[in-house]
């Protein structure tokens, strides 16, 4: 009887799969109503079989029936990334945007993978790109951007409405005609669109000057000005000639019946532009204009009469990821009048030179001396030593967020710079709310300076410190004591790659004096010097339970191993912790099973996220899976595959 029932279930399951596949292939003919009329359990099972376009189309109607499409989007992500990939999305919109972002990038730029190959007939279509582009917030300006002025022009209209940030990852040669296409797309997104953030991931000072020109700063780069004026007249003639061909471009305009038809425009043939010889292009003698206003006239000539002068956008967030001295000179010239700039991020592959940082500080000071300045966020890496932070803070005392990465370099000039004296109480109170410091090596006087900054930042709510390695015999206790004494508003504290095994009393004091909501002590070697590891961990857990505001706790990479069981006490009684990260702690299957038993005994009143990644579950898969099964009623588990043969170094480090 059981065998017969099992065969019947298999047949029913197979028939159901065949029916779901048929619905997927013929949904357009069946219509949405046919799906919506199905029983709710069948609809939920169907979701994982639909294409991304079908999921996107059905989602609004399904939501009205109270049905979430989350399982469908998660199914696509699992198919794309593999079963061992951690998927941490809790809403259908989050999962949908991640799917669309990943697939748009692959399809638009011509990349492929197993998932794209399997679904190419559903993805390589205008309808998919038009659906996916609405979920894209960041656009990377690279090949095949030329298609946005030709067969994919409808996408440009949608990108203009949705893109919030633009990335430039390739150097743009202003002497080549194809440069005009890239600059025109940039102009549309930055000036006609809503993008206010620009990410420059290439060392190309003249392109940086073009981007900054007219978009906030009043500075005019002379090289760019000469380039624009020398080529302007001939390109205006090109635009006029192109306008004369308007009728032939627009006579055969066809619109498609869709919700996006107002955004679709038939590409214009620009014969006047195409007539320039390849020899002229290669030699750089061709008169290709780079003025955004003229470019707009040329590329939109077939769309009808111009509405007048183009608007100028404003950049409020600028990120330069390869900031060499030449790019910094361009930026420093623009900064004093860059009043709309709110956030500035500068990164360099090598350490910034002292003179470059001091020049930047001078330009920042000129900017912040104006009441019109908006700059509140500054991120810079890598500085050669801690003392330069003083100059940046002095240049912009209105900073709300500061991120600094420091790689200590021994240079003679550093000793000419004086740290503020600890007894100097005249330093004004800083409005800093978020501070992030990444320091590879620290001297004791550097620690004094950091503590000094913390004392003068009573509004600080978030602190992230990484890599503060002190000389042998020194302790981080001074830093932690300063926090408990001076930063009572602290809500988020992240300390990583630091030795804190001798700082348990100071950590307990912070938990008493600050109303923390998030605490991350990652790779801090907490248990290293504890003589009674279990007892000291009990003290930490007891203090954590007394912080009712705490919702996120991370103790990743602390060699907890068998002591993980103590953490189950976090969930005895009323617990506020909603996310616990114990990844990379060499937790063995038997130890996780004991942890699961204790959690089950305490029966947490609400489910919490539990990150178990990078722990050796494959040492005993059956026990590991049993532990996971016991935890699932109480936790949303984040796990991934572990291959012990590839992680011997981690095993040795945790012995």
UniProtKB/TrEMBL annotation:
Underlying gene: lrrc41
InterPro entries per UniProt: Leu_rpt_41, LRR_dom_sf
SUPFAM superfamilies: RNI-like
Keywords: Leucine-rich repeat, Phosphoprotein, Repeat, Ubl conjugation pathway
Protein name: Leucine-rich repeat-containing protein 41
Ranges for region Disordered: 253-272
The species this protein was found in: Cottoperca gobio (Frogmouth)
Coiled-coil regions listed: none
């Amino acid at each position: 009887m059981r065998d017969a029932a099992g065969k019947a279930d298999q047949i029913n399951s197979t028939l159901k799969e065949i029916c779901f596949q048929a619905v997927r292939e013929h949904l357009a003919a069946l219509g949405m109503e046919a799906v919506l009329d199905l029983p709710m359990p069948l609809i939920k099972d169907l979701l994982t079989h639909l294409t991304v376009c079908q999921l996107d189309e059905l989602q609004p109607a399904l939501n009205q029936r109270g049905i979430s499409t989350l399982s469908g989007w998660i199914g696509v992500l699992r198919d794309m990334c593999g079963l061992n990939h951690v998927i941490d999305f809790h809403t259908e919109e989050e999962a949908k945007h991640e799917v669309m972002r990943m697939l748009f990038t692959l399809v638009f730029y011509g990349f492929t993978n197993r998932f794209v190959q399997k679904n190419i007939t559903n993805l390589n279509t205008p309808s998919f790109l038009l659906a996916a582009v609405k979920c894209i917030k960041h656009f990377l300006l690279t090949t095949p951007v030329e298609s946005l002025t030709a067969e994919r022009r409808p996408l440009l209209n949608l990108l203009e409405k949705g893109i919030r940030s633009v990335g430039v990852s390739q150097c743009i040669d202003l002497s080549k005609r194809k440069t005009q296409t890239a600059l025109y797309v940039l102009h549309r997104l930055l000036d006609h669109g809503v993008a206010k953030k620009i990410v420059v991931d290439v060392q190309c000072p003249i392109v940086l000057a073009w981007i900054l020109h007219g978009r906030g700063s009043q500075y005019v780069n002379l090289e760019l000005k000469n380039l624009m004026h020398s080529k302007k007249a001939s390109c205006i003639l090109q635009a006029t000639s192109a306008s004369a061909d308007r009728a032939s471009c627009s006579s055969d305009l066809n619109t498609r019946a869709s919700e996006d038809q107002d955004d679709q425009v038939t590409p214009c043939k620009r014969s006047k532009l195409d007539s320039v010889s390849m020899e002229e292009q290669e030699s750089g003698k061709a008169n290709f204009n780079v003025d955004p206003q003229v470019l707009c006239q040329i590329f939109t000539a077939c769309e009808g009469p111009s509405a007048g002068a183009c608007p100028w956008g404003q950049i409020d967030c600028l990120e330069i990821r390869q900031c060499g001295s030449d790019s910094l000179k361009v930026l420093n010239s623009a900064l004093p009048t860059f009043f709309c700039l709110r956030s500035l991020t500068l990164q360099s592959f090598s350490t910034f030179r002292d003179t470059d940082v001091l020049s930047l500080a001078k330009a920042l000071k000129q900017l912040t001396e104006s009441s019109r300045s908006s700059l509140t966020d500054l991120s810079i890496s890598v500085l050669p030593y801690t003392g330069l932070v003083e100059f940046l803070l002095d240049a912009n005392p209105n900073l709300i967020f500061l991120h600094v990465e420091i790689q200590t370099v021994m240079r003679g000039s550093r000793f000419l710079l004086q740290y503020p004296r600890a007894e100097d109480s005249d330093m004004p109170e800083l409005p800093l709310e978020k501070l992030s410091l990444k320091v590879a090596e620290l001297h004791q006087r550097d620690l004094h300076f950091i503590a000094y900054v913390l004392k003068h930042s009573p509004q600080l709510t978030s602190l992230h410190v990484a890599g503060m390695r002190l000389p042998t015999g020194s302790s981080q206790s001074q830093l932690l004591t300063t926090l408990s004494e001076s930063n009572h508003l602290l809500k988020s504290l992240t300390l990583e790659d630091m030795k804190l095994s001798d700082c348990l009393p100071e950590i307990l004091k912070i938990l008493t004096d600050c109303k923390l909501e998030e605490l991350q002590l990652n790779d801090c070697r907490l248990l290293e010097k504890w003589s009674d590891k279990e007892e000291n961990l009990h003290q930490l857990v007891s203090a954590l339970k007394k912080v009712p505001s705490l919702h996120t706790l991370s103790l990743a990479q602390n060699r907890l191993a068998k002591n993980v069981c103590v953490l189950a006490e976090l969930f005895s009684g009323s617990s506020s912790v909603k996310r616990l990260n114990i990844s990379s702690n060499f937790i063995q299957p038997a130890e996780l099973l004991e942890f699961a038993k204790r959690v089950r005994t305490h029966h947490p009143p609400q489910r919490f996220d539990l990150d178990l990644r990078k722990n050796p579950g494959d040492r005993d898969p059956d026990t590991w899976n049993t532990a996971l099964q016991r935890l699932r009623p109480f936790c949303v588990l984040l796990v991934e595959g572990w291959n012990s043969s590839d992680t011997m170094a981690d095993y040795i480090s945790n012995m």
